[in-house]
Design goal:
Number of helices: 7
Distance between the termini: 27 Å
Shape: globular
Mean pLDDT: 95
Order of helices and strands: HEHEHEHEHEHHE
Radius of gyration: 17 Å
Number of strands: 6
Structural class: alpha/beta
Strand content: 5-15%
Length: about 220
């Protein structure tokens, strides 16, 4: 989803900078004529390197898209303290850290928007994604607090809540929970991100937009 979002924003005319731990993001950024940094969104130093390069080369940050990796999964009471803390790093602090860096820049330049890729499980807790659901519910609260504080500065923050998307292998048991009868496309998530980054979404902040085909909770 993160790669699809980067391609969409580049198609919409944005210059794109990408941080990823695998090196694939750096390769994609080169393909798109942008800036690539190999590192982790769980490292303040790596995030600072990315922001510094963007500011030094382009002078501003208009859009930030936060896309997390995958956190721990286990039956709810089998998750260790260490894995709960890891889940918080993966799903919550990975959005808080870069927001802390770019929000002052956005305020100074007169506006900007932050878009967090979250999950339907933030409001439909699912035993398949326990740490994701818990900490992305926290991300929803953080987003509202952030949005309220920075709305007057024209700095917006919203969450996109995908359901089951074709970037992962399809399973019949999950597809059966989707009223639309199919997995979503990464391009559909990217289109929503593109809209939230556009002037057309300029009056939207603090929201959680479900893009899940009407998914129902597991039993």
């Amino acid at each position: 989803m993160g790669a699809a979002a980067a391609r969409k924003l580049a198609d919409d005319g944005f210059r794109v900078a990408i941080l990823s731990s695998s090196g694939k993001g750096e390769a994609l950024a080169a393909e798109l004529g942008g800036i690539g940094v190999t590192g982790s969104n769980q490292s303040n130093d790596d995030l600072q390197r990315l922001v510094d390069r963007v500011v030094n080369e382009w002078g501003r940050v208009d859009v930030l898209v936060n896309s997390a990796g995958h956190g721990p999964r286990a039956p709810i009471l089998d998750i260790s303290d260490e894995d709960w803390h890891r889940g918080m790093d993966v799903y919550l602090l990975s959005a808080v850290r870069p927001a802390r860096l770019v929000a002052p820049l956005m305020v100074k330049q007169g506006g900007g928007t932050i878009i967090n890729i979250s999950t339907f499980a933030a409001f439909e807790p699912d035993p398949v994604f326990p740490t994701s659901g818990v900490f992305r519910a926290g991300l929803a609260a953080f987003t509202k607090l952030f949005a309220d504080k920075y709305a007057a500065d024209n700095v917006r923050m919203n969450n996109v809540l995908p359901g089951f998307i074709d970037s992962l292998p399809e399973k019949a048991e999950f597809r059966g929970r989707i009223p639309m009868g199919r997995y979503g496309k990464s391009s559909e998530i990217a289109a929503v991100i593109g809209f939230l980054a556009s002037e057309g979404a300029g009056y939207i902040t603090g929201q959680n937009l479900r893009v899940d085909g009407g998914i129902t909770r597991s039993v």
